[in-house]
Design brief:
mainly alpha, 2 domains, 6 helices, 0% strand, globular, binds zinc ion
Amino acid sequence: MNKRSLEKYRNLLEEKRRDLLEAYTKKKSLGSEVGGKERAADMVDMATDASTQEFLYSLSNSDRDLLKAVEGALALMNSNEFGECVECEEKISKKRLDAVPWARYCVSCQELVETGRLRT
Ligand SMILES: [Zn+2]
């Protein structure tokens, strides 16, 4: 994948991550706990910290899965594996990445995952 497309997807992913974190911060600040943007920003850098776990649990299941997927895609980007199916290493189509930049599987492997024939 060329650098320009890579940057495009990186921006999309980072934007998505920000959205998810902000949604969380808003939800949190409605409660009585200490919240705010600063705290959310701190959390971005904590990958294995216990409070990250706590944070993840406070998200709804779908938000949590999404955030993990987004983080995973950014990690793949850092190891130059972004845009490849993690199962068969085929290139994931641009069309698919445009719709779902955090996709981990190509269309055929995704189908196997969804039908339970491939364990993730
Ligand atoms: Zn595949």
